[in-house]
Specification:
The protein is built from 16 helices and 19 strands. It is of the alpha+beta class.
C-alpha cells in the first residue's frame, strides 16, 4: 500500500473561517466552547450555510451533493491518516468484488492506459469471455456501447470509469469496438459477461526441488485457498525440498488471509497481535498445530520496499519464529489495521484505522519496516541510462522496432528471436543521440513492450532477478541454517 500525503481540503478551511466570522457577526453565545474553540453546532450550521450561499451566488451551477461529499472527505482527511477515508458506494462495491469475494462479473481482461491515453488490453485471462471471442494483448478498446474511450482531461474519463463500463452482472452483454494495431483493423464484438475469479497466487517449480509461489496484488478472500492448492501441487509426492515465497510489491489486504498463509508454516506461538485505543480491537492470532509445509522444507521469503501490511505480517511471523529467512530489501512499514464501516445514515463507508499490529516478538513495524536477514538490492538502471530510456520512449524508437517485428506476424512464445535482432537497433538509437551504459536496458525495455503486445506474463525472470538468484543460492549452499544459527546467537540472553 503506497502512502500518500492528504492535503486538508479548502472546503474545511472555509468551513472553519466561515463559522468563526458567522459566530462573531451574529454574536452567538454557542459559537465558542469553554476552550475557546468553535463548537460542533456552529460548524454544522456553517457548513449548511456555506453550501446554500454557494448554490445561490457561485458563478457556475453547483452540485450540492458533491460539496457535501467533499466535506465528508475533508473531515476524514483532518485525521491526517492516509488509511482513513470515505469510500463512495462505487468504490466500496469494487473493493468487495476484488478484495473480499475475489470475483466479479466481467470480461476477463487486464487493461492499462498507454502513453497516448488509449485503453489497451494487457492480456485476456484464460477461459474467459474475452479469450473466447479472440481479444488479444495490445488491442485498443476504442468504444464501449458506442461511446468513445479515451482517458484525458477533455473526456473526464478515468481507467476506473472504463472498468465500471466493462464490468456488470454475469450473463449480460456488452458491445465493444476494438482497434487491432498489429493488423490495423477495427471491428465490433459483443461479449457476454461471466464470473471472473481473481487469482492472487502464481506458482512454478524450479530446479532441484525448489518451489516458487508469488502472492501478487493483494491478500484476498480467495488467497489462502489458492495458496494451499499451489503448495499441495508443488509438494506432490513430497518432492519439495525448499520453497521461495515471493511477497515483493504486495501491498497487503485482509489480515485474516495473511494470518492463514503464515499459519501454513507455523505450528506454535503467536503469528500477529493487534492493539487499539478501544480494547475491543485487541486480538491475538495464534498459530495452530497443523501446518501445510513440513518443517524440513526450507523457506525463503522475498521482500522489498513495496511489501506492506499483510505481506509484513507474514514476513514478520516467519522472521521472528525463525521458520525461514527473508531476502531482499527492508519492507514498507505499515503496521496499522483498518476496518470498513458502512454508514447507517447513507451510502458508502469509511475506512478507519482501529489498531496497530505487532509481530510475534511484540514489535511494531510501523514506519520502520522489517529488515531482511540477507539484504540484496534490486537491479536498477543508472541515472544516465534512465535519461537515455526517457529519450528513447519520447521518440518511440524501441517501441517502433518491436511493433514492426510484431506486425510481420511473427509471434513466438518467447523473446529469443526478437532479442537476436536487437543489435540492429543500437545504431538507430546512437544516430538519435541515445547511448546506453548497459545494453541490458534496451533488452528489458524491448521485452516489456513485446510482452504487453503479445500477452506474455513473466512471473519469473531468472536471468535478471538478482534477489531471486540469491534466494536460490542460499538454498543450494545450505546457508539458511547458518543464518538462522547466527540469529539465535545474536539474541540477548534472558536470565
Amino acid at each position: 500500500m503506497f502512502k500518500n500525503k492528504h492535503v486538508l481540503p479548502i472546503l474545511v478551511v472555509i468551513l472553519v473561517l466561515g463559522s468563526f466570522f458567522l459566530g462573531i457577526k451574529m454574536g452567538r453565545s454557542d459559537a465558542l466552547n469553554g476552550n475557546g474553540k468553535l463548537t460542533f453546532t456552529t460548524l454544522s450550521r456553517a457548513l449548511v450555510e456555506i453550501i446554500k450561499k454557494t448554490e445561490i451566488n457561485y458563478y457556475k451551477e453547483v452540485d450540492r451533493n458533491a460539496m457535501m461529499e467533499g466535506a465528508i472527505r475533508g473531515a476524514m482527511a483532518a485525521l491526517d491518516d492516509p488509511y482513513s477515508f470515505y469510500m463512495e458506494p462505487k468504490k466500496l462495491k469494487r473493493e468487495r468484488e476484488d478484495l473480499y469475494r475475489g470475483e466479479f462479473g466481467g470480461l476477463g481482461i487486464r487493461i492499462y492506459e498507454d502513453k497516448n491515453h488509449f485503453v489497451k488490453i494487457a492480456r485476456p485471462l484464460p477461459n474467459t469471455p474475452a479469450m473466447k471471442v479472440g481479444l488479444q494483448a495490445g488491442d485498443i478498446i476504442a468504444k464501449i456501447e458506442g461511446e468513445s474511450i479515451i482517458i484525458d482531461a477533455a473526456s473526464g474519463m478515468t481507467l476506473d470509469d472504463v472498468v465500471d463500463k466493462l464490468r456488470g452482472q454475469a450473463g449480460t452483454p456488452v458491445n465493444v469496438t476494438i482497434y487491432r494495431s498489429a493488423t490495423m483493423e477495427t471491428f465490433d464484438v459483443k461479449i457476454v459477461r461471466d464470473v471472473i475469479k481473481i487469482n492472487s497466487v502464481e506458482t512454478e517449480m524450479l530446479d532441484s526441488g525448489i518451489g516458487y509461489i508469488k502472492i501478487q496484488e493483494h491478500f484476498t478472500g480467495r488467497t489462502y485457498k489458492e495458496f494451499a492448492d499451489a503448495l499441495e501441487a508443488l509438494n506432490k509426492d513430497n518432492k519439495l525440498k525448499a520453497l521461495i515465497l515471493d511477497l515483493r510489491d504486495n501491498p497487503g489486504g485482509l489480515l485474516e488471509s495473511a494470518w492463514s498463509v503464515s499459519n501454513a508454516f507455523l505450528s506454535e506461538g503467536v503469528i500477529v497481535s493487534t492493539r487499539g485505543r478501544d480494547h475491543k480491537y485487541d486480538k491475538v492470532y495464534p498459530a495452530t498445530k497443523e501446518v501445510s509445509l513440513p518443517p524440513e522444507v526450507q523457506l525463503v521469503v522475498l521482500v522489498n520496499g513495496y511489501s506492506a501490511s499483510g505481506s509484513e505480517i507474514v514476513a514478520g511471523a516467519i522472521k521472528d519464529s525463525k521458520r525461514g529467512i527473508l531476502v531482499g530489501t527492508t519492507t514498507y512499514g505499515k503496521g496499522l489495521v483498518q476496518q470498513r464501516m458502512e454508514l447507517d445514515s447513507g451510502p458508502g463507508a469509511i475506512s478507519l484505522t482501529i489498531s496497530s499490529y505487532y509481530t510475534p516478538n511484540g514489535t511494531s513495524i510501523h514506519g520502520k519496516g522489517i529488515t531482511p536477514n540477507i539484504e540484496v538490492d534490486e537491479w536498477n538502471p543508472s541515472a544516465i541510462d534512465l535519461l537515455m530510456l526517457r529519450k528513447a520512449r519520447e521518440k518511440e524508437l524501441i517501441e517502433k522496432f518491436v511493433m514492426d517485428y510484431i506486425k510481420t506476424g511473427a509471434k513466438p512464445k518467447d523473446f529469443t528471436e526478437l532479442k537476436a535482432r536487437l543489435p540492429g537497433l543500437i545504431p538507430v538509437l546512437e544516430k538519435n543521440g541515445i547511448k546506453f551504459e548497459e545494453e541490458k536496458v534496451v533488452t528489458l525495455e524491448a521485452r516489456r513492450i513485446f510482452d504487453l503486445n503479445v500477452g506474455i506474463v513473466r512471473d519469473i525472470d531468472l536471468e535478471n532477478d538478482v534477489q531471486l538468484q540469491r534466494a536460490i543460492e542460499v538454498i543450494k549452499s545450505g546457508e539458511i541454517a547458518k543464518v538462522l544459527a547466527a540469529e539465535v546467537k545474536s539474541e540477548p540472553e534472558v536470565k
